[in-house]
Amino acid sequence: MERAEAEINSNECENESRKKKMSEEFEANIMDSLVDMPFATVDIQDDCRITDEPQINLKRSQENEWIKSDQVKKRKKKQKDYQPNYFLSIPITNKEIIKGIKMVQNAIIQQDERLAKAMVSDGSFHITLLVMQLLNEDEVNIGIDALLELKPFIEELLQGKHLTLPFQGIGTFGNQVGFVKLAEGDHINSLLEIAETANRTFQEKGILAGDSRSFKPHLTFMKLSKSPWLRKNGVKKIDPDLYEKFISHRFGEEILYRIDLCSMLKKKQSNGYYHCESSIVIGKKPVGIRDLINEALHRETMGLKSKVKQIKEFLLKPETQAKIRRELFEERLINNSNPANAIDFSTTLT
Questions:
Q1: C-alpha of 197 from chain center
Q2: Are the C-beta atoms of 150 and 194 separated by less than 8 Å?
Q3: 151-165 residue pLDDT tens
Q4: Which of 17, 106, 238, 273 has the highest count of CB atoms within 10 angstroms of its CB?
């Protein structure tokens, strides 16, 4: 009896040992098959914890560095290719200011006739609010949309009041660019806030805008870069003595009433002002009859441009083009099937 019990216990031990061995072999086989699969480094590390963790972290770190390096290269290339060709302009229309600037220009030219080539024409006087790069018609349209978005912000900022911009004194940028200064005051903070919002609005729409220099509103009246011939003939800087009499001159005030999206490269208008893609009007400006007529014509032109744009977009839609082709095809079938129609049609043409 005891011998029989011993044999039973022995058999049970053997069975348990055999089951344990089979289980270990089964798990080993599963692990071997997992290691051979492409996603082993992810699944096994997370679930079975048998992958070398430091090695995986190293690979991920290297990948992150490659991604960062690639992003930096793309950013540098984008910045390198960035050449502004459009800008937001506040046009200067006050005749008193323009007259004062012409006085300065004439006084400088009388002292050095060569500098006549460096003078900005009176129709081009403006304040640059923001520069940007628009490479094609689609980006120009995006720029127009961004400009339109600025209008409610500016009107909310001003709360129905006029933003008056007083000009006084003369300054230069590195003795290369001569400009009329914007006098100190709260209006500079308002203008700065408008410029910052414009920059943010355009960049949020994917437009490359702004530059590395801090915003300093100014009214340029001359720049040596307009004529490379000057440097070749020894004119390398603007001598402060040339404008000494106007160093504190009061030129007058301009009321902000319009902001234009202008091209730096397209042909200027007949009045000397830049090619304008679109404008926003801020508040109301006390104007004469001629100014009212010009403003009405300007708005009419902008309205026509908008309508042309809408028509073009409509005609470029695939469903519109398909409908036009279908109607032309059906009309051709009708004409071909009815000789009388064909005769009448040809008669009409003659």
A1: 13
A2: yes
A3: 999 999 998 889 999
A4: 238
Give the span between the Cα atoms of 268 and 272, in whole angstroms. 6
- The encoded tokens of residue 205 equal 């729409």
Helix (H) or strand (E) holding 130: strand 126-133
At 173, list the tokens. 């940028």
Q: In what order do the strands lie in the sheet with 208-209?
A: 208-209, 126-133, 86-91, 258-263, 276-281
Beta bridge partners of residue 127, listed in sequence order: 90
Of the candidates 197, 127, 134, 203, the residue with the CA atom closest to the CA atom of residue 165: 127
Residues 187 and 167 sit within 8 Å (Cβ to Cβ): no
**Residue in 44, 25, 42 with CA at minimum distance from that of residue 34:** 44
Residue 260 pairs in a beta bridge with 89, 279
- Tell me the per-residue pLDDT of 71-124, one tens digit each, with 9 for 90 and over: 555 545 555 677 999 999 999 999 999 999 999 999 999 999 999 999 999 899
Structure tokens at 148: 């339109």
H helices within 36-122, ranges in order?
Answer: 40-43, 53-80, 95-111
Q: How many CA atoms lie within 13 A of 288 on its CB side?
A: 4
- The secondary element (H helix, E strand) that includes residue 320 is helix 318-337
